[in-house]
Specification:
Layout: E1 2-6, H1 16-20, E2 26-28, E3 34-36, H2 48-52, E4 58-61, H3 76-85, H4 99-109, E5 122-126, H5 129-151, H6 153-156, H7 162-168, H8 171-185, E6 197-204, H9 212-227, E7 231-234, H10 236-242, H11 246-252, E8 258-267
Antiparallel strand pairs: 1-4, 2-3, 5-6, 6-8, 7-8
Helix pairs in contact: 4-9, 5-8, 5-10
Length: 287
């Protein structure tokens, strides 16, 4: 989206666009209206000015018109119920999710915030069981490879961080992987839990910031899904295993300059929850 100026016939000179713009690109012109200027092309196209203008006076070029925010903001009780009531689901009904329902989720995450409004996230919605099995197979293969790392941990100790060594030295890690490998080889899907849909998000490599935008977007997706009665589970093991796997990127049609930065299952949950589980007391400093 590109801001092109202000319709002076509509502008009431209220100055809310000046207040909303993080780039200080609006200013009073001494008359009734407000001026817009962006000589250094600082505008990110965030649209705050459009969203704030009560007269709809901001002019812009885009593939669609800005929409009015539907309905009312939820009260704190409704919002907290949604946020606190969302559970990680690993058991799903044998029931498909319709394309219109999935498109509702995608429409919500289209509005997820991103750094500098770059909107780098692209998504792949997978229902093909063969593709899902390929992702699971590669994840299990990564477990087997990781077990080799565990066996060599003492040789690696001088060269790795203590926290990573402690993970490798935890006997429960190897036992847990053995159990998952054993179950998978007997036909149980311990990776994606037979979910009807797997959603993948991929982004360009932006270093340490690469996981921020997709993390925000996928959180939006999982909460939107929850509001539709659809459960989800963030697939950390699978994401690490296939993030830059050449076979996976090629099979999913992901360009070489991008990688997988998030995976979640989606499905109608078997379980119904009546109360919130106990969580640790919050740790926060007040300064």
């Amino acid at each position: 989206m590109k801001i092109t100026g202000i319709d002076e016939k509509k502008c009431a000179g209220c100055g809310l666009c000046i207040q909303a713009c993080i780039g200080n690109l609006y200013s009073k012109n001494g008359k009734k209206a407000v001026d817009y200027a962006d000589p250094n092309q600082w505008c990110t196209g965030c649209g705050h000015c459009i969203a704030a203008c009560p007269e709809n006076a901001i002019t812009y070029e885009a593939h669609e018109k800005a929409l009015e925010i539907p309905g009312k903001d939820p009260c704190f009780e409704d919002a907290s119920r949604l946020l606190m009531g969302k559970r990680t689901e690993r058991k799903y009904k044998d029931k498909d999710i319709s394309r219109p329902e999935l498109e509702k989720i995608l429409e919500v995450i289209r509005y997820a915030p991103s750094g500098h409004n770059a909107q780098p996230c692209e998504y792949i919605i997978i229902k093909d069981r063969a593709v899902i099995k390929m992702l699971a197979d590669i994840t299990i293969q990564s477990f087997k490879a990781f077990k080799t790392v565990i066996r060599l941990r003492k040789l690696m100790k001088p060269f790795i961080a203590k926290t990573f060594y402690d993970i490798l030295n935890n006997p429960g890690i190897a036992l847990g992987m053995d159990d998952m490998i054993s179950q998978y080889e007997t036909g149980k899907d311990v990776i994606f839990f037979n979910a009807p849909v797997v959603m993948v998000v991929h982004v360009p490599d932006m270093g340490a910031l690469s996981y921020v935008d997709p993390g925000i977007a996928m959180t939006h997706a999982m909460l939107a899904a929850h509001s539709l009665g659809i459960g989800s589970c963030w697939m950390g093991f699978a994401m690490m295993a296939v993030a830059k796997h050449k076979r996976v990127l090629q099979a999913l049609g992901i360009p070489k300059d991008r990688f997988i930065a998030g995976i979640t299952t989606l499905g109608y949950p078997v379980n119904k929850y009546l109360r919130l589980p106990v969580r640790n007391a919050i740790k926060a400093q007040w300064m």
